Structure formats: structure tokens, C-alpha cells
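FAQ: What does the model actually see?

It sees only this:
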Amino acid sequence: MNAIFAETLRKLRAERGLSQTQLGNQLFVNHSTIARWENGTRLPDAAMMLRLAKCLGVDANTLFRLAAESDESPNVILVDDSKVILSDGLAVLEEVLPNATITGFIWPQEAIDYAKANRVALAILDIELGAASGLNLCRTLQEINPRTNVVYLTAYPDYALDAWKTAASGFLVKPLTAENVKEELKKLRWPFQAGGAET
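And it is asked to produce this:
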């Protein structure tokens, strides 16, 4: 199932004021074909993708990129300036999310560069990152992709109030454990297949 492409297609169609039947008529396909694309059970072929892009007034490469992305292997990042915590945390995430691509970063800028090149489904961020702030990193990641779930990880529970002023999904106190990660996955704003509501 490709929920990313499906949701984008629904949004683009609705923004143009088209029903599934109207879009189907423009593409010379049945409305049930559009419905299957929008529920994520089918994808249009390459020729149809070009026609779809033209009808919706979007770049075809954008649709091809969205179709290639998948919820089945989400990108998960962990950012912490402690190598020990980073190493232990990555092991926990690999246990809880065996289908995810999990990457750790010590430097916030490296995490930002990664997020610009890859759709990040979940970012677990230390709040104190040396001279940098996980709160600011959260805001930057959200600007890159508003559907990135952010969960803070800190040794200082006093940060909770500041954390909730951002668009974070959750807040964890160190150390990271499989149990507390599983609990946070149930509360994500944007659940994904390898976690969230299906965990």
C-alpha cells in the first residue's frame, strides 16, 4: 500500500474541485480506478502518471517520486550528542522497528541534510545538543516535512513544557527502552506501517 501517493492524489484532486468521476472522465478511466489509486491499493502506470500530472497541473516527476516512496520501510533518525546514548538507542530502535531504515546523528546539521534528501517518518531528538537545541531542530525538520513525527529524548523532564510548544508527538526521558518507544509509537501524529497505530 502506498499511502503517501494516495493521500497526495486525494488532496490534489480535491484542491482542483474534481470528483473521482470527473477526474476519471478526463483520464478515460472508471471512477473505481481513481478510488483504488486513492486508497493505496493500486498505482497508475507510467503513461497514466504522465496524463494524471497534466490533468492535475503538477510536475510528473513529483508523482513518480511519491509513487516510489513507501510506508513499508520508513526512515527513522535518532539525534543525540552522546555516542554511547546514540549507540544504545539505535539498538533499541532496530529491535522495535525491524523494517525501518534507522540512522543516527551527533550533529544536527547532518540530520537536517539527511531530512532534505530523505522523507523522515520519525525523528527522536535529544533536546540539549551541545550548543544546538533539539527544539530548534524539531522546527527545522517540520519545515522540511510537516509529516515528520518528532519525539524528544532527554535526561531532563523539566523540558516537557517547552517541548509541547513545538509540533512534537511525544516526550521520553532517558534511557531509551523498547517499551517506552512502543508506547510513543501508538501516539504519533502521523502513524506509519512499521509502527504507530499498528504496533
